[in-house]
Design goal:
GO terms for molecular function: DNA binding. The chain is mostly helical. The chain is built from 18 helices and five strands. Strands 1-5-3-4-2 form a five-stranded mixed beta sheet, with helices on both faces.
């Protein structure tokens, strides 16, 4: 049965109709605006011809008389009344003039019925569309399929995989862990790319073994890490070094537009440090490791997930500044070369004295503004090949 909205016009409304009046509000009253009609949830709808028939009968007109009034063939009007012919804009204008209503409303009634009928006829397909869109709003599905992180399939298969990795209830709009995540820029929520990166990093960590967490041991590792990683090949030892002190280290390449360098968190098995390798540079990777290590040592990872994108220091909160300062103190232990022009040989000599890789000296010179970002990059190796073996 149709919703009992009534057309407002100047003709008397008969009370002796043998069926429910389906006439809709077609006036200019504020409460009956077109936007109101468009935004109402359509539980059920009826062909526009049924509303038109109500209007004709309310005026005690015959169909042939109405056809004469609007100057249309009787057959054309009959086809509209019986749902066999669609209203055109021209016909809607003529009906509106004859009934004292608005042409736009007649077209809206027709479209609402068409939308309702389409939704009824294709409900399963449309529900699948909604479900696929919900997944795509949560995580970058196309990239997950491309990288083989989920198996492509129908929507139910893909949903099950995503909910499992996110450890979220089916239909959730956010992963549970995302609620506990703290970014460098706290005002910005996690993007789908960041949500996926964290979830799949955590999944990878669950598959790793490590010793019981050793807090003092991790602090000592942080203090000596740059000297342990004085060669590019030494980076291969990072997961094992951290596992010895009870910290799992995972690498997952960042997703497109992810803008995330690293994160740390603690689960029932202890701390995890995840790195994306964004920037593909040895100095950036090592400092990200040190920064996340500092967060764990300082206890920041006990309260949730800490996410770092190495934004402007001015935007850092107190915990970020504390971790950044500790990581910086671990990086280099002696003054750096200074001067208008610093050569590669000077950098290498300084690195040798400090027992670190030259990339770390270059990185600090860049960060401090002593050397332009584009200079001395030949001393900074790429790390993607080694990260692929972690």
């Amino acid at each position: 049965m149709a919703t009992n909205y009534r057309v407002q016009n100047q003709c008397p409304t008969p009370r002796d109709l043998g069926h429910q009046d389906r006439r809709l509000p077609l006036s200019n009253r504020e409460e009956d605006t077109m936007s109101d009609l468009a935004n109402r949830t359509i539980a059920e709808a009826f062909p526009v011809g049924e509303y038109l028939r109500d209007e004709i009968e309310a005026r005690d007109w015959s169909v042939s008389e109405f056809a004469h009034i609007i100057g249309r063939p009787l057959q054309a009007v009959s086809e509209i009344l019986n749902g066999k012919k669609l209203l055109t804009v021209e016909t809607a204008v003529e009906i509106a003039r004859a009934t004292g209503t608005e042409a736009l409303t007649w077209l809206t009634l027709q479209n609402r019925y068409a939308l309702w009928a389409q939704a009824e006829a294709h409900a399963p397909k449309l529900l699948d569309i909604e479900r696929r869109a919900a997944l795509a709003n949560l995580v970058p599905m196309a990239e997950l399929r491309k990288r083989g992180l989920i198996q492509a399939g129908d929507v139910a298969v893909e949903e099950a995989q995503v909910w499992s990795v996110l450890r979220a209830a089916p239909g959730a709009h956010r992963a549970n862990f995302a609620l506990a995540a703290r970014r460098t820029l706290e005002a910005e929520p996690l993007s789908p790319a960041q949500t996926a990166w964290l979830a799949f990093s955590a999944k990878a960590a669950r598959d790793l073994n490590s010793s019981s967490y050793d807090g003092p041991g991790l602090k000592e590792l942080g203090e000596t890490l740059t000297r342990r990683l004085s060669t590019l090949d030494a980076l291969s030892s990072v997961p094992a070094l951290f596992a010895q002190v009870g910290v799992r280290v995972v690498h997952l390449a960042a997703f497109k537009s992810g803008k995330i360098d690293g994160a740390c968190f603690t689960d029932e098995r202890g701390p995890t440090i995840a790195v994306s390798g964004r920037g593909n540079a040895m100095d950036k990777l090592i400092f990200t490791l040190l920064h996340e290590t500092a967060h764990v040592v300082l206890g920041h990872a006990n309260d949730g997930i800490v996410i770092d994108d190495q934004t402007d220091p001015q935007s850092m909160d107190d915990q970020e500044r504390e971790a950044d300062a500790l990581a910086s103190s671990w990086t280099l232990h002696q003054p750096l070369p200074s001067g208008v022009r610093i050569s590669a040989k000077e950098v290498e000599r300084c690195a040798t004295v400090q027992g670190v890789h030259p990339a770390l000296v270059v990185g600090r010179l860049h960060f401090d503004g002593v050397v332009p970002w584009g200079h001395l990059n030949g001393l900074v190796p790429k790390v993607d090949a080694i990260l692929a073996r972690w």
